[in-house]
Amino acid sequence: MSKRDYYEVLGVGKDASQEDIKKAYRKLARQYHPDVNKADDAESKFKEAKEAYDVLSDDQKKAQYDRFGHVDPNQGMGGGFNGADFGGFGDIFDMFFGGGQRRNPNAPQRGGDLQYTLTIEFKEAVFGKKTDIHIPRTETCDTCQGSGAKPGTKPETCGVCHGSGQQEVVQNTAFGRIVNRRVCSACQGQGRIIKDKCGTCHGSGKVKKQRTISLNIPAGVDDGAQLRVTGEGEAGTRGGPPGDLYVVIRVKSHEFFEREGDDIYCEVPLTFAQAALGDEIEIPTLTEKVKLKIPAGTQTDTYFRLKGKGVPRLRGYGQGDQHVKVVVVTPTNMNDEQRELLREFARLSGEHTHEQNQSIFERMKKAFLGD
């Protein structure tokens, strides 16, 4: 597969200045760096941009490329252009995302964050609660105080990279001297070597422990809320601060109440007589039972509001409301006397009974059939 034109790769013209070339490359590096972009083709696009930049940012290489293109005149017409080594992604990442400074492998590093999912009852979310949780996490080894070395000893500076964590590989090419940086093979980029390892943590400086943490769940917390507990994450490295713990709240459903924000909803049944004649009924709330007056003639699916009977507001004062939906229940399994009374009620109201409606259905049927 033939290589794309380097100017096309960076999206600049042949008359572009070195500043324009640099800006174009920095933009592509941020977009396609493998530590940032996890797409399948991100790494290949990053390498392509890096290769184009290495050539166009060097006046000698750029002049050579403008004259011969991808063909290396020192290797004959069949040879391809010899780009730089792309093994050192870490250096490029530090250059563009770390202010252009090389990362110190011996510098303190912050520990990782942890996430814990806590499931609580519906009313516990409404009123809040205090609880303890138990989480496994890494902590600084008490035996070596995090150094990883056996007590009485200490890590030594790597003699290969002299503490930098990187090795420099120099290559002499037709276009000049190229210096590539790779992770030090002797210390694996740590910049130090532990000859006598701690018997407790085996040189890692960290140990796994079970940690008990007391939580104060605030009243009014909702499903999906996230609580941050500072400093209760994984231990830091080389004296770095620990990470944080994020507790994700999951709230169980309730058999009677439903919640929307700070408001509570519930549904209560009414008999035909209660809806028609009116009544005063007892409604359960989150804290107590209250009386609710049902006006005569109330229709099914009517809502009533109980002000201030909802959930305490998490950020602010007061509480939400409780909304009560009434549903008129049609009577079933009536005896003969009850049915006769309903027929009489329908007759006095000028309503059609079931028997009268039969004739109406017949007339509708005839109308549809065209009889």
What does this structure look like?
CXXCXGXG motif repeats lie at residues 141-148, 158-165, 184-191, 198-205. Homodimer. Residues 5-69 form the J domain. Zn(2+) 2 binds at residues 158, 161, 184, 187. This protein is an alpha+beta fold and 371 residues long. The protein folds into three domains: 1-71, DnaJ domain (Helix Hairpins); 106-146 and 202-253, Urease metallochaperone UreE, N-terminal domain (HSP40/DNAj peptide-binding domain, Sandwich), CATH 2.60.260.20; 254-370, HSP40/DNAj peptide-binding domain. 26% of the residues lie in helices and 26% in strands. It has nine helices and 15 strands. A four-stranded mixed beta sheet has the order 10-11-15-14. The chain has a three-stranded mixed beta sheet with strand order 1-9-8. A two-stranded antiparallel ribbon has the order 2-7. Helix 2 packs antiparallel against helix 3. Residues 75-101 have low confidence and may be disordered.
List the helices and strands and how they pair.
Layout: H1 6-10, H2 18-32, H3 42-56, H4 59-68, H5 89-97, E1 114-120, H6 122-127, E2 129-140, E3 156-157, E4 166-173, E5 176-183, E6 192-193, E7 206-217, E8 226-229, E9 245-251, E10 258-260, E11 263-270, H7 272-277, E12 279-284, E13 289-294, E14 302-306, E15 322-328, H8 336-349, H9 354-369
Parallel strand pairs: 1-9, 11-15
Antiparallel strand pairs: 2-7, 3-6, 4-5, 8-9, 10-11, 12-13, 14-15
